[in-house]
């Protein structure tokens, strides 16, 4: 008799809320229910769609699309500005539901997370039963729907959660992974964006089966380190653990100007608004940063960044704003017209000190 024990098969759930921002708006404002909702800005300025309700998606509206394009596709759509405080509060309630079932939770954003339920905290019996129970709790307690993917690793669970939206539940067990990966279109692979997908298709790589024909050296030669990852996941190999504590590396915000401009007053006004947004997010996460970075995108879509680091961490809007103005001036853009501005804080303390002497605190505004 062998004294070797079989490795534990992990049970991973990926939960993804359905049209999260738009669903919260429709829940909180009954007059929006059943109507095409676009969250992210107004159609008369160059904002982008944060998310759209399913009623709007039937017109072809998608996240990251310009609001003006969304309006062209659906002139009857209702455009609303995001209420991040409301979404954050709902996200916290969702996280509390997750914590009843497992302590190993890796949030990816306000509306999605990985859960490792290998240890059955409530003794429900299976990962599928746990996923069903989580979905029911979210629906009953928060009046929202979520889709879930269940599998033995993070990659497959994430892809599975997107297969039967909205309000879906998809299980892909170990015996099904090989066939599933071979049929999967390359654009569905983690880390494969539009540009990489186009490169792959130009190489006649359209599905996982096509990808599987290439050796690891061939893939790394074409796609760098990502090639090695593609080689593994197309074979169902994904050893990445669910990380219970993901360290926040940076907090930032950006916005597109209504028109390309080199008008200092207009750019300063936008930087002030962005500074206030970042300060609010830093406060929410109880963070302060030692490095500020300003992002500048020009009318020709060229992007430059300028950064400055400090000996003490900062988190208030006035200081962020002042330093952002300095960095914009140092960029010396001349007569070039600017399309977008952004501000990011990084190099965090673990917490914002509850009280800091005024003399030790730079005056930032975000």
Automatic annotation (TrEMBL):
One of its GO terms (cellular component) is cytosol. Belongs to the DNA polymerase type-Y family. Its EC number is 2.7.7.7. Mg(2+) binds at residues 16, 111. Binds 2 magnesium ions per subunit. The active site is at residue 112. The keyword Transferase applies. It comes from the Bacteria. GO terms for biological process: DNA repair; DNA-templated DNA replication; error-prone translesion synthesis; SOS response. HAMAP family: DNApol_IV (MF_01113). Poorly processive, error-prone DNA polymerase involved in untargeted mutagenesis. Copies undamaged DNA at stalled replication forks, which arise in vivo from mismatched or misaligned primer ends. These misaligned primers can be extended by PolIV. Exhibits no 3'-5' exonuclease (proofreading) activity. May be involved in translesional synthesis, in conjunction with the beta clamp from PolIII. It is an enzyme of class 2 (transferase). The record marks 21 as: Substrate discrimination. GO terms for molecular function: damaged DNA binding; DNA-directed DNA polymerase activity; magnesium ion binding. The gene is dinB. Its cofactor is Mg(2+). Its main location: cytoplasm. Monomer. This is DNA polymerase IV. It comes from Pedobacter endophyticus. It is found in: Cytoplasm. It catalyses: DNA(n) + a 2'-deoxyribonucleoside 5'-triphosphate = DNA(n+1) + diphosphate. NCBIfam families: PRK02406.1 (NF002677), PRK14133.1 (NF010731).
């Amino acid at each position: 008799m062998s004294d070797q024990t079989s490795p534990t098969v992990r049970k991973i759930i990926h939960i993804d809320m359905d049209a999260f921002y738009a669903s919260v708006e429709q829940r909180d404002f009954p007059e929006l229910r059943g109507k095409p909702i676009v969250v992210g800005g107004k159609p008369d300025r160059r904002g982008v769609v944060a998310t759209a309700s399913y009623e709007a998606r039937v017109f072809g509206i998608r996240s990251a699309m310009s609001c003006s394009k969304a309006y062209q596709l659906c002139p009857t759509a209702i455009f609303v500005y995001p209420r991040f405080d409301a979404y954050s509060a709902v996200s916290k309630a969702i996280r509390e539901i997750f914590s009843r079932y497992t302590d190993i939770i890796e949030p990816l954003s306000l509306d999605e997370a990985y859960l490792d339920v290998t240890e059955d905290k409530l003794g429900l019996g299976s990962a599928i039963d746990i996923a069903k129970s989580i979905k029911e709790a979210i629906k009953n307690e928060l009046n929202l729907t979520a889709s879930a993917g269940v599998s033995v690793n993070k990659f497959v669970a994430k892809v599975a959660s997107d297969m039967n939206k909205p309000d879906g539940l998809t299980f892909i067990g170990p015996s099904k992974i090989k066939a599933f990966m071979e049929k999967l279109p390359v654009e569905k692979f983690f880390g494969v964006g539009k540009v990489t997908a186009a490169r792959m298709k130009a190489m006649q790589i359209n599905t996982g089966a096509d990808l599987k024909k290439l050796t690891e050296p061939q893939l790394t030669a074409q796609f760098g380190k990502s090639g090695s990852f593609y080689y593994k996941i197309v074979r169902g190999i994904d050893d990445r653990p669910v990380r219970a504590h993901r360290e926040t590396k940076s907090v930032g915000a950006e916005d597109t100007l209504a028109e390309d401009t080199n008008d200092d007053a207009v750019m300063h006004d936008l930087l002030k608004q962005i500074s206030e947004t970042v300060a609010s997010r830093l406060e929410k996460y109880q963070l302060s940063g030692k490095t500020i970075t300003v992002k500048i995108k020009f009318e020709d879509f060229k992007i430059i960044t300028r950064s400055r680091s400090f000996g003490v961490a900062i988190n208030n809007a006035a200081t962020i704003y002042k330093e952002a103005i300095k960095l914009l001036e140092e960029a010396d853009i001349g007569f070039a017209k600017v399309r977008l501005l952004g501000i990011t804080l990084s190099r965090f303390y673990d917490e914002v000190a509850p009280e800091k002497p005024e003399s030790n605190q730079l005056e930032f505004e975000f």
